[in-house]
Each structure stands twice: as C-alpha cells, then as structure tokens.
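Hi Q.,

Before the meeting this afternoon, I wanted you to have the adenosine-5'-diphosphate prediction in hand. No need to reply - just skim if you have a minute. The sequence and ligand are here:
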Amino acid sequence: MKRIALFPGSFDPFTKGHQDIVLRGLRLFDEVVIGIGRNASKQRYFPLDDMVRLIEWTFREHPNVRVLAYDDLTANVAREIGARFLLRGLRNTTDFEYENGISQVNRHVYEEVETVFLITSPPLAPISSSIIRDLHRYGQKVDEFLPYSLDLEKTH
Ligand code: ADP
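Predicted structure with the ligand bound:
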C-alpha cells in the first residue's frame, strides 16, 4: 500500500522551510500531497492560484509531490485522498503547543491518521510566512527565503 502523507498549511507564501519538510518527507513517504487550506474567513496575501503554480514549479522534478487546494477539515481531506499520515514541521515550543492540539483534533475526526513531525533544519527555523509577508508588504526583497522567484514570469 502506498504511503501517502498530506502536508497541510496556509503556505502564504510557501517557503524554503516548507520545501525542506517536503523533501525530507519524501524519504519517509511514497507521495507527499501539499494541501493548501482555503479559509473563507482568512484573506490571503499571496493569491492561491499563483501559490499553487509556484509550488508545482518548485517540485517539477518530483512526480511524487502534488498540490491540492481544499476547503474542508484537514483530516477529512486526508481520508479522501488515502493519506494515513499528516506531515507537519516543528520550529519551536510555540509550534509544539499549537500542533499538539490540532493533532488530537485530527485523530478525533479520522482515528487512523498519524501526524508525523519533522524538526526544522536549524538554518531555516527563523523563516515564517508571516515575517515574509511583512517584509514583502514594505518592499523588502524576500527571494532568499523562497524556493522560487515571486516574479511569476520567470517560472513560465
Ligand atoms: P498553518 O497556517 O497551518 O500554520 P503554515 O503554512 O504556516 O500553516 O505552516 C505549515 C507547516 O509548516 C506547519 O507545520 C509549520 O509549523 C511548518 N513550518 C512553517 N515554517 C517552517 C520552517 N521554517 N521550517 C519547518 N517547518 C515550518
């Protein structure tokens, strides 16, 4: 049976920290599905369609990585796509407190699902989507934190 992991997140934007989790996840799983949760109450900073395309471009040489935008409970999506694993990254104790709660909820919704946590690679630990949004909003270059160029034209 194929070992499929769902890596859920907002990915607003997808960073080198996220890329590292996916690449390391590929050593554990046959397929990693990057799930971008659509949250109606949360306005995105980077448009969803652009982010899907940029992530697909990032993993263009990895046929066992795909991107899925969803509007449902993460655990329900995992069940639907046959993923028995959720993949998450842990940077610090704040992440741990939050992840501890949601992993319990996910198992409440889908009993068989296991969340697998990978500790962030130290040089990537300070990278967060929210900091990147703040830098970008005020015109600071953020390319060094991203595995693609935000200049969409370059990815065609
Ligand atoms: P969410 O809104 O669900 O927290 P994010 O897009 O912020 O989604 O993050 C998705 C996952 O990636 C989370 O498990 C988060 O802890 C992890 N993550 C975020 N940044 C990094 C990083 N720099 N290194 C490793 N994991 C990270």
